[in-house]
């Protein structure tokens, strides 16, 4: 069956309801969450007003996000855009994370049953610890080590910008078992919260944007975990290992990258929708030529966001159909976040000084949008991936 890039009516209705709720009930707390660098104190009460299930980790009995015929990953696209249309503070309060995606991508059947399946069934927060103070995009530079000591792996090192790291049920930590092997020596290890030697140095780091998101600075000081916590590694028969952590990291991120693109589109669409009525109210102060230029800008911005959506849909429908494409996921991540940043900036420019006023959320959303192009694989790296796919190793 062909894919028409049109969401089913039930999913459209769900997304519309989610977007309206996020706008009316959650957006009023956006400035507070940004200034306090955390979710509002009454976040549970705010979430309780949702007329649809959100898949909350704190109240799984309220239900997970419904299943739609469009597919799980297409549903996630609609969900990410709609809920972040209100503001970015809302989504992290639901729990979730991407640590479990690494378990799914890299774990043995036993590990998937232990650490992935329960999260999918009841919800819960997991975290992904890859970035370190000494590197960002070049994952081959992982300095955190994991050394075998009898029946344990002993982890030492630091991780930063770990989303949800302070409260996740477990963190998937990337560490090298042999520095001389470079990327091939990197593996992923499940480190449960509360493990001795697992220290949260700073619960929420200071950031330009997404200040309400808990991104943590973590330290592992002689942190001992069982041998079976090394993902994809057969304790009794190491030669039967599924693969190393480097490949697992890239694979897990690829699935989630279009979702990050959808998040950016949600912010950009919200910016256009806030600016448009304000500009129309000021139309009398524009010359006819100037107003025509403004209308062309608004039309072009809406059109480019729609292109981003189409790329996202194309990338994720391949995942739902069991034929995931790393290059399509890279195209989605390489296009939408950078485009969304330009859209929000142009919205600010169209309003002039009012655009950077704290009376509006545009300057906040612009700060929030900056990270979308960077985390979970920078846009620059994604464009290299697409180029290499198109013309081979000569690109990049």
Describe the structure.
The chain has 396 residues and is of the alpha+beta class. The protein folds into three domains: 9-94, no CATH class; 99-243, Butyryl-CoA Dehydrogenase, subunit A, domain 2; 247-394, Up-down Bundle (Butyryl-CoA Dehydrogenase, subunit A, domain 3), CATH 1.20.140. It is built from eleven helices and seven strands. The strands form two sheets. Strands 2-3-7-6 form a four-stranded antiparallel sheet, with no helix packed on it. The relative contact order is 0.11. The mean pLDDT is 91.
Descriptive keywords:
alpha+beta; 396 residues; 13% strand; 3 domains; Butyryl-CoA Dehydrogenase, subunit A, domain 3; four-stranded antiparallel sheet; three-stranded mixed sheet; Butyryl-CoA Dehydrogenase, subunit A, domain 2
